[in-house]
Amino acid sequence: MTKPTKTQANRAKTEAGILRAAEEVFAQKGFAGSSMDAVAQQAGISKQLILYYFPGKDKLYQAVLENMIDLWLEKMQFNDDPEASPASTIRQYIQQKIELSRDYPNGSKVFAHEIINGAPVLKTYLIENLKPAFERDVKIIERWIAAGHIRPVDPKHLFFTIWAATQTYADFSTQIQLLLGKPSLDQDDFNEATEFLCNFVLSALDAQH
To answer: Is residue 134's pLDDT more than 90?
Structure first.
């Protein structure tokens, strides 16, 4: 793999910084209430520089959403290694999904709001990118069921349940913080959530090994 040039690396760093700033602004104010000026202020750079990379608020919003899907696909597709056990594969999947909720809480909130509103911007990207990966992972679970490795379940609803249970630690973090009596969630909270969800799902599937 060719090593990126210094210019390419600097561009990627700047784009990533803009996206993280935009995640926070869109999460707090929604698309309609956000502005490129607010993103520039959050990022600590000029509005003109942001417009150089993303020529308009709608393009920046779309980039934030697509980046979240790309991160999802990068970290959370099942390993199709026949030597990997269902338990280890599912455990890794849940762990990485919790890590995304920990590391990208604002991006997750923006994604959730987009989906709640019918995915007007993201629908085509979801169909073209997420759906094929989802269907591939469903087939892996179906193979495990056919081979007797896990208890028969509906694979699609298994994924929906895992997504809901892991994303709540980002999308509804305020609720969890209030109920736990904490100003913010820390690494121990995410570790406990990961361990609980892994044990819960693996027990339900009878896939402890």
So the answer is: yes
